[in-house]
Amino acid sequence: MMAKQPSPIRVGIVGFGTVGQATAAIIAAHQAEIVQRVGRPLEITAVCRRHFPADLVLPPGARVVTDWRAVVTAPDVDLLVETMGGTTTARDVIAAALRAGKPVVTANKNLLAEHGDELFALAVQQGLPLGFEAAVAGGVPVIRAVAEGAAGDRLHRVFGILNGTANFILTRMQQTGADFTAALIEAQAAGYAEADPAFDVDGFDARDKLVILARIAFGGRVTPADIPTLGIRAIRAVDIHYARRLDSTIRLIASAARGPAGVEIAVRPWLVPLHSMLARVEGVNNAVFLDGQKLGLQMFYGRGAGGDATGVAVVSDLIELASDLGAGNLAPKLLAGFGAGSPLVLSQNPEPASWYLRLTVGDRPGILAHVAEALAHEGINIDSVIQEPHMEKQCLSFVITVEPVAEPVVLRALGVINQCPFMLEPVLLLRMDG
Ligand SMILES: NC(=O)c1ccc[n+]([C@@H]2O[C@H](COP(=O)([O-])OP(=O)(O)OC[C@H]3O[C@@H](n4cnc5c(N)ncnc54)[C@H](OP(=O)(O)O)[C@@H]3O)[C@@H](O)[C@H]2O)c1
Q1: What is the CB < 6 Å shell around ligand 1?
Q2: Which domains are assigned to the chain?
Q3: Residues belonging to the active site
Q4: pLDDT digits (tens, 9 = 90+) for 268-281
Q5: With 0-12 CB in 10 A as exposed, 13-18 as middle and 19+ as buried, what is 159?
Q6: Engineering a disulfide at 182: which of 178, 223, 326, 395 sits with its beta carbon 3.0 to 4.6 angstroms away?
Q7: Considering just the CA atoms, what is the radius of gyration of the chain in Å?
Q8: How far apart are CA 144 and CA 275, in angstroms?
């Protein structure tokens, strides 16, 4: 007599694009391992998108629907995957699925950063899990690392390179000497940047991921609007050049650090030493660093985006949720920092840091004296002044690095310097990693 096949756990996917399709392909390819872990197979019973191209590969036997409502409440869907993106319909999709009693897995950092409180509160109310490993750093399992692996420690700081597109552009600028625009065009041609790259290059994607990481690392509420965010558009080839003269390069760093005055949090480009681990994160890779009281520094590194890497994270969540569902053990999870928690106290008093100032000026005598005076007026000590010889006199760029000082003090000095008639554009201020 044949052994009875265990009944499948049925999955509906709303948003059948890059990540949704990769999720389906991984479930098909890894079914044996899934059965080993869950005890039952996963079966995709419904996929939803608005347009179905003729050459789209569909999971065998799955219904195709264009209205998400036909998936989220369907009796043949036990678990829902939301991989459509956006913050409007996706919010309704997840809320409707939770209300219908279905656990949800999402890759949508944008939505969780904006509306995480509401959705996690609903998950708690419904007693259901909401998996979101795929929302930060794609395939790098950093959500579990922070929320579970490092739960026994007290984290001081979580930081890293959270946007592969921006990192690709900065890496190409470093490798080829290209300017920002040329490197962006290359990223777009390679499929690493959208036609409208704002979300990636202006730092908003990294900011949303930092919201999620900071919340689960420090157990309090922080919103995208709380995070000062500066992208990489203002970085020029000359900055990469001067950075190299300082044995450094430039990376877009998302960082949340807990100090006596509260949490200092920002997304901004940093000068990082060439020999540092941050500098060695190249191309579209991501890296997340956790600094714990007992653990010290830990680094998680890998492919932060792409269908396959992100699909693996979605399937990992599905395996966990399906196991819990099979065991009758469904419960809300990983909620520290979301929902009812109090807001994180944000520092109004940032720690001193070293700074890189790039000035672009029209040549005339006495510029350095003016700038030095403005810095000295704020008690700022100059560490070095670098200027390449033979630059065009009408528009020359030089760099001043300054000894550690709190950012508001530098900004006061820049307020004066930027008003000087010889300044052709505002000073570019980059933080330097000590
Ligand atoms: N791609 C990555 O590397 C990556 C990495 C990490 C996280 N994520 C996240 O994963 C999510 C999906 O990203 P993706 O790259 O897979 O996007 P995508 O390729 O654009 O896929 C989105 C899918 O959703 C469908 N869709 C959009 N609006 C819909 C609606 N109202 N009703 C039904 N279907 C709808 C789209 O098809 P139609 O237009 O035909 O409806 C498309 O198939 C996003 O939240 C993203 O931030 C992506």
Answers
A1: 15-20, 48-51, 68, 83-85, 89, 107-110, 134, 138, 305-306, 310
A2: 9-131+308-327 (3.40.50.720), 143-304 (3.30.360.10), 353-432 (3.30.70.260)
A3: 209
A4: 999 999 999 999 99
A5: buried
A6: 178
A7: 24
A8: 29
* pTM of the entire predicted model: 0.95
DSSP 224: G
Ligand 1 midpoint to CA 236 (Å): 32
Output the CA 219–ligand 1 centroid distance in Å.
Answer: 29
What type of residue is 293?
Q
H helices, E strands: number in the chain: 14, 15
Nearest residue (CA) to ligand 1, atom 4: 305
pLDDT by residue (tens digit) across 62-107? 999 999 999 999 999 999 999 999 999 999 999 999 999 999 999 9
Residue 16 Cα: closest atom of ligand 1: 43
- Rama region for 202: left / alpha / beta (φ>0; ψ in -120 to 50; rest): alpha
From CA 205, how far away is CA 224, in angstroms rounded? Answer: 10
**Distance in Å, CA 47 to ligand 1 centroid:** 12
